[in-house]
């Protein structure tokens, strides 16, 4: 079991909001656009070893295993209650995935353990120091030739996103995302061939995707 720091934010923000986590993901965060996009860009084949960092209630991990039953899929999250929901979700779907309780800043896996690491809508919860620690850990557990696929809030595109970003940038957790600094942090962590592109708008924020080679 992980030792959660005082600054740790549970999957739904607060434990009592956890029952709302999946509905919010579907409707507010446009999960129907996010999940298939992540799956398609993961380029998973039989035998691919996949880690979902910050898996929450396991939706992406379950979807990945359903689409690629011959891949190894592990989900990791620091929220034990969210993981309990993920286990029930996997059981209902009839898929076998491993679900581990730990933090992105201290991954409990050996070097070069995975071919793909994915993470969605997690990094905007982390202060910059923890972003750097998490990226270093993700780089460490990726095998040569593997890549990291990250989806999260990024630079605003339209006037309303820019207006809101100007008010949110005072929060350290959001500042690097909204200023377009995640690419620099990926490079600093030793990733190469970094690609980034806006994925879709949530109305109040823009979700971007980054692909970075180990």
Question: What is the element layout, followed by pairings?
Answer:
Blueprint: H1 21-27, H2 31-42, E1 49-53, H3 59-67, E2 72-77, H4 80-93, E3 98-101, E4 114-120, H5 128-141, E5 142-153, H6 159-168, H7 172-178, H8 182-188, E6 192-201, E7 206-213
Parallel strand pairs: 1-2, 1-4, 2-3, 4-5
Antiparallel strand pairs: 5-7, 6-7
Overview of the molecule:
With 214 residues, the chain is an alpha/beta fold. The chain has one domain (15-213): Rossmann fold (3-Layer(aba) Sandwich), CATH 3.40.50.150. The protein has helices at residues 21-27, 31-42, 59-67, 80-93, 128-141, 159-168, 172-178, 182-188; strands at residues 49-53, 72-77, 98-101, 114-120, 142-153, 192-201, 206-213. It has a seven-stranded mixed beta sheet with strand order 3-2-1-4-5-7-6, sandwiched between helices. The longest helix is centred in the middle third of the chain and has 14 residues, at 80-93. The chain is globular. 40% of the residues are buried.
């Amino acid at each position: 079991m992980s030792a959660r720091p005082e600054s740790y934010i549970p999957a739904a923000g607060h434990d009592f909001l956890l029952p709302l986590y999946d509905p919010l993901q579907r409707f507010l965060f446009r999960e129907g656009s996010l999940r298939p996009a992540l799956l398609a860009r993961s380029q998973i084949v039989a035998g691919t070893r996949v880690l979902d960092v910050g898996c929450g209630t396991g939706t992406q991990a379950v979807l990945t295993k359903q689409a690629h039953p011959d891949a190894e899929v592990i989900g990791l999250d620091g929220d034990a209650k969210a993981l309990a929901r993920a286990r029930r979700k996997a059981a209902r779907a009839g898929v076998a995935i491993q679900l581990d309780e730990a933090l992105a800043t201290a991954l409990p896996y050996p070097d070069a353990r995975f071919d793909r690491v994915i993470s969605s809508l997690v990094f905007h919860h982390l202060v910059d120091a923890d972003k750097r620690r998490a990226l270093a850990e993700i780089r460490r557990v990726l095998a040569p030739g593997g890549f990291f696929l990250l989806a999260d809030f990024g630079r605003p595109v339209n006037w309303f996103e820019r207006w809101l970003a100007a008010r949110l940038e005072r929060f350290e957790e959001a500042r690097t995302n909204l200023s377009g600094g995640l690419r620099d942090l990926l490079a600093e962590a030793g990733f190469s061939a970094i690609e980034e592109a806006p994925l879709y708008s949530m109305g109040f924020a823009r979700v971007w995707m980054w692909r970075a080679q180990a």
